[in-house]
Amino acid sequence: MIDIKILRDTPDMVRAGLAKRGRKLEIVDEFLALDTKWREAATALDALRAAQNELSKARDVEGAKAKKAEVKELEARVSALEGERTDLLQKFPNTPMASVPMGKDDSENVVVREVGAKREFAFLPKDYLTIAEKLGVIDVKKAAEVSGSRFGYLLGKAALLEFALVQFAMKRLSKKGFMPVVPPVMIRPEVFMGMGRLAADQKDERYYFPNDDLYLVGSAEHTLGPIHMQETLRDKDLPKRYVAFSTCFRREAGSYGKDTKGILRVHQFDKVEMFSFANPETSGEEHEFLLSCQEDLLSALGLPYRVVEICTGDMGWTDAKAYDCETWLPGQNGGKGEYRETNSCSNTTDFQARGIGCKTDKGGYAHMLNATGLAIGRIVIAIIENYQTAEGDFEIPEILKEYF
């Protein structure tokens, strides 16, 4: 969550951040008014409790009893105001860094660089689903019968490709100092809220089990961050880097009509995710390091891609700065090809750390960063399209062959 002190002391800075994101500014005044009411009530409550204690010390039983009733009534008011204040605070996204490009939506994201040569085909390249269905390695029709739309079966060669990709990413990132993790895929509401992933429009994305009061995660990030919840990290141990494998679950609530065929945008997918706890002074460098790790994975797989800096209007709720890697898919657009997002890389600064209470021994909160290692389904798509053959099959990248 956003720092209350910043809201109180520099509300204009918060308004500027909201304006960059295209958000309503009235929420700042609304919060400040509510915060004033809460602080006045809390101060009055402290005074009442002190008066009650004095009456108790003076053995004024009736007076203390009357004050106790007043305290109880005011406690309820303070609690109600605090609840309202917390709810309103959840409606503030992270403030964009000054270097983030201005823009209203993804059409105004900035291409930083393009990397890798696009393969020249002697035939018109097909899309992955045409190839995969003919080979019998992806089945979305049967999955729709079993589970509904936006699900798929990976079979045979495609299933083995998934496990090869996971092993490849884990091995390569472990050598860079990331600790491998298999995290929980269910999370308590209060922890999810602390990570900033139940705020505002994000709640519609989540799968919730009311009988258990648990949510399914949308990324390993959601349970990797809380691995240091309510802890103070030693500055000399930072950055602390983790790489996790998990299944992820998303409703895709805001994507009605988009990518309804195939496995590009689904409710359930597997992912290798990087996560870092960094010193606030060096989190910018750590952000660039995570991006370099993404690029290393894509380059090692021989996949052409481009790096895109996300503009203010397209950034995620918790992000202060973000990049995407978009991989070239030659079979899209009837064989003309197009770039599609396969990796995201975000610096959430202290936004998530404040929500889960992760501090450093230098004082203040740690900075938390997350980055896609490999979104397995999307990389399977990219490999099928980039490594397709004229015979309608696809080859395996050389670097993955040791895992087959």
What does the secondary structure layout of this molecule look like, with pairings?
Blueprint lengths: L3 H6 L1 H11 L4 H32 L3 H29 L20 E6 L12 H8 L2 E2 H8 L5 E2 L1 H19 L4 E3 L4 E2 L1 H6 L13 E2 L4 E3 L4 H4 L7 E2 L6 E10 L18 E11 L4 H18 L4 E5 L11 E9 L2 H4 L2 E10 L3 H6 L2 E2 L6 E9 H11 L18
Parallel strand pairs: 4-9, 8-14
Antiparallel strand pairs: 1-11, 2-3, 5-7, 6-7, 9-10, 10-15, 11-12, 12-13, 13-15
Helix pairs in contact: 3-4, 5-13, 7-13
Write a structural description.
The protein folds into two domains: 86 residues, Helix Hairpins (Orthogonal Bundle); 298 residues, Bira Bifunctional Protein, Domain 2 (BirA Bifunctional Protein, domain 2). It contains 13 helices and 15 strands. α3 packs antiparallel against α4, α5 crosses α13 and α7 crosses α13.
Question: Any descriptors?
Answer:
single chain; 404 residues; alpha+beta; Helix Hairpins; 2 domains; three-stranded antiparallel β-sheet; 15 strands; 40% helix
Question: What's the number of helices?
Answer: 13
Helix-strand topology string? HHHHEHEHEHEEHEEHEEEHEEHEHEEH
Query: CATH class of the largest domain, anyone?
Result: Alpha Beta
What is the percent of helical residues? 40-55%
The number of strands is 15
How would you describe the shape?
elongated
Find the structural class using helix and strand composition: alpha+beta
Query: CA-to-CA gap between the ends?
Result: 44 Å
Strand ordering within the main sheet: 1-11-12-13-15-10-9-4
What would you say about this model in short?
This protein has 404 residues and is an alpha+beta fold. It is built from 13 helices and 15 strands.
